[in-house]
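Work Package 4 report. The design task specified in the project plan requires that, given a folded chain encoded as structure tokens, an amino acid be chosen for each position. We show below one input record used in the internal validation round.
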């Protein structure tokens, strides 16, 4: 009976990890309901998975450290950690400095940055994100260049690249980059190889690079790599990231700002 019990626990934890990888992110209370186990039992399972390096937990939420090709839709991203994303956006905008040409990556945080952009000069902002482009046109006097290509329905971003088509040969002072995962060992990763190519081109075409991402992205590895940590000057993330982890990432090159 003891052997059967151990097998049952192992199977439950395997199913829990699979569910986390399918969804990309789960609240403990939601997972408890989906798994039909008590919160106490679920927390024990999560501790085991976390100690094995398979998930990361923070404030009642957990994410798998390997997320493959999963991406949440924009409607979900906008509400997840919204306060943290707003803080990151505001501080990242303060790092623009004297830049006059800027690349804003796809994602929620770059769009949140629009309201914090400098107003003392007209910037030229290049982006692959249609929502960010619309926010720029509606709320600012900045010049906007949209990278062409096919539109991804999940993120409303284009696939083409700053270094291809009508944007070939463009260079910017600063690139504000997002990511699905960032790790010391594997750098910056994203689920879609085509997206990785766009991001890689934007990195190559910029003089400075800033990474903006929530604390739960740290230690996570996705499917396609587009940059190394050494390529990044600053990382802006939430104060929810433990100081010990921030120091570990700083040892690899970038300055980490917890806001």
């Amino acid at each position: 009976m003891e052997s059967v019990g151990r097998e049952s626990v192992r199977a439950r934890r395997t199913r829990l990890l699979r569910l986390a990888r399918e969804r990309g992110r789960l609240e403990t209370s939601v997972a408890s309901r989906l798994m039909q186990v008590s919160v106490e039992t679920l927390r024990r399972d999560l501790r085991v998975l976390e100690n094995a390096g398979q998930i990361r937990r923070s404030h009642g939420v957990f994410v798998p450290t390997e997320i493959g090709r999963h991406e949440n839709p924009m409607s979900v991203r906008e509400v997840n950690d919204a306060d943290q994303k707003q803080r990151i956006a505001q501080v990242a905008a303060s790092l623009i400095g004297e830049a006059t040409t800027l690349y804003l990556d796809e994602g929620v945080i770059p769009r949140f940055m629009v309201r914090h952009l400098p107003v003392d000069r007209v910037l030229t902002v290049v982006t692959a994100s249609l929502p960010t482009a619309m926010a720029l046109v509606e709320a600012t006097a900045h010049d906007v260049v949209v990278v062409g290509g096919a539109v991804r329905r999940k993120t409303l971003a284009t696939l083409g690249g700053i270094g291809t088509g009508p944007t070939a040969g463009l260079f910017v002072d600063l690139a504000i980059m997002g990511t699905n995962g960032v790790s010391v060992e594997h750098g910056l990763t994203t689920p879609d190889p085509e997206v990785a190519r766009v991001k890689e081109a934007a990195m190559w075409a910029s003089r400075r690079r800033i990474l903006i991402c929530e604390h739960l992205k740290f230690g996570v590895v996705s499917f396609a790599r587009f940059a190394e940590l050494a390529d990044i000057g600053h990382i802006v993330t939430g104060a929810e990231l433990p100081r010990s982890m921030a120091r570990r990432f700083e040892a690899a090159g970038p300055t980490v700002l917890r806001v």
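The two ends are 51 Å apart (CA to CA). Validation will be extended to a larger panel in the next phase.
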